[in-house]
Design goal:
The chain is of the alpha+beta class. The chain has five helices and five strands; from the N terminus they run αβααββββαα. The chain has a five-stranded antiparallel beta sheet with strand order 1-3-4-5-2, sandwiched between helices. α1 runs parallel beside α2.
Length: 180
Amino acid sequence: MIFRTFLVWLRRHRGPRLGVHDIGTLRLTVLPTDLDVLGHMNNGVYLSIMDLGRQDLMQRSGALDKLFAAGFYPVAASETISFRKSLQPFQRFALETKIVGYDAKAVYVEQRFVAGGELYAKAFVRARFLRKGGGTVALDELAAVTGADPSEVVLPEWLEGWARDVAVPPSRATAPSEWP
């Protein structure tokens, strides 16, 4: 993944510039290192490749440089993915990435794996932005730094419920692992 991450970073000035709410498309090929014992792309690799799609969108929109200059960085808080078909060795596919909404603390991103115009998998990520010095970046600060207008996208109601349902205690709270 480090090699692919570096390649995405290198292409930050190539290709069309994007608006932060545009759909970013990253074209990739399933490599032998992406495979599991069943010979198709491993489910964990999908999540790693999704990082690349978010990086590409933020770079090509110009948001990533602005965020880093402000001392902010993104982290995934929650992720869910649904698989429809398996991606096979050396199969070419596109990863489509789009911001689909915001709440007070997070950005919600939809990502789709598409091959031959057909949907193979779809995922949603709830990402937060943190300060290098500690703390969470508020939505108004994020919008001011990136120039994004959160009112341009409306967070689907079901994603709000999903975020509540999968939430875990904050990192500073105690969170023993207790099974019912």
